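[#protein-structures] MJ: dropping KTSC domain-containing protein here for a structure pass
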Amino acid sequence: MPEWKYDGLIAAPSAGEYFNTYIRDQHPCHERS
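AK: finished. structure tokens for KTSC domain-containing protein:
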């Protein structure tokens, strides 16, 4: 498997978590755990 494809598999879930956190931070009206 090409290295760039392997890196993409690692980066994708991390990016998802990052954006989910960012979106929560932009909407403080939603309760946080």
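MJ: nice. The chain is about 75% helix and 0% strand.
AK: one more thing. The CA atoms of residues 5 and 11 lie 10 Å apart.
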